[in-house]
């Protein structure tokens, strides 16, 4: 049983460490955003883009750390349940040994079978946890989506009160959104009219 309790401690420690790493990435993201703003103010767009990519990467890493922390917490909760159940089972076994009449009426083979099943489920949980960790480590992405970089550059420029001159070519500014909205409105109006006719 001490090995299970040690595993529980290690899981809780790992979850805390992942949360710390997430907060660290959040701080790094803020630092990179400040650098983006400074670079934009100086007119150095290449440096601004690099810092924007770094900020997006830090944000993604923060989310990944937080997600993994939550999953490790969930596993720790299951292990905690297993530890508690094992302690309860030992206590029950002690009581049963002290009560001959109760011992005769209880089916020890059934209890043993349940314990074997419980241990098998815990081994399955270990395998699933290892699989989940492998999956999380293999899916951590280092690529930075360009649309997020562009969005961050615009956001930082807006905060700095500057214009990036990176807008859409003339003629594509507002007409797309309004035409889509009006088409959706026409479709809704037609559907409403059909419903009224049916009633």
TrEMBL record:
GO terms, biological process: vacuolar transport
Comp. bias regions, Polar residues: 170-182
Coiled-coil segments: none
Start and end residues of each stretch annotated as Disordered: 167-199
Domain of life: Eukaryota
InterPro entries, per the entry: Snf7_fam
Pfam family, one: Snf7
Family: Belongs to the SNF7 family.
Protein name: Charged multivesicular body protein 1B
Classification of source organism: Eukaryota, Metazoa, Chordata, Craniata, Vertebrata
């Amino acid at each position: 049983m001490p090995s299970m309790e040690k595993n529980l401690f290690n899981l809780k420690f790992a979850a805390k460490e992942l949360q710390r790493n997430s907060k660290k990435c959040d701080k790094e993201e803020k630092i990179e955003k400040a650098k983006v703003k400074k670079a934009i103010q100086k007119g150095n767009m290449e440096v601004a883009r690099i810092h924007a990519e770094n900020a997006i990467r830090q944000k993604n890493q923060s989310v990944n750390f937080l997600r993994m922390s939550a999953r490790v917490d969930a596993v720790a909760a299951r292990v905690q349940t297993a530890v508690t159940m094992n302690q309860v089972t030992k206590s029950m076994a002690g009581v049963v040994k002290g009560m001959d009449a109760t011992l005769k009426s209880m089916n020890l083979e059934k209890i043993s079978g349940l314990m074997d099943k419980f241990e098998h489920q815990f081994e399955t949980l270990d395998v699933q946890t290892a699989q989940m960790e492998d999956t999380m480590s293999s899916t951590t992405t280092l690529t930075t989506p360009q649309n997020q970089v562009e969005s961050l550059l615009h956001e930082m420029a807006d905060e700095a009160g500057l214009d990036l001159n990176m807008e859409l070519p003339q003629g594509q500014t507002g007409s797309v959104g309004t035409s889509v909205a009006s088409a959706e409105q026409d479709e809704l109006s037609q559907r409403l009219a059909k419903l009224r006719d049916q009633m």
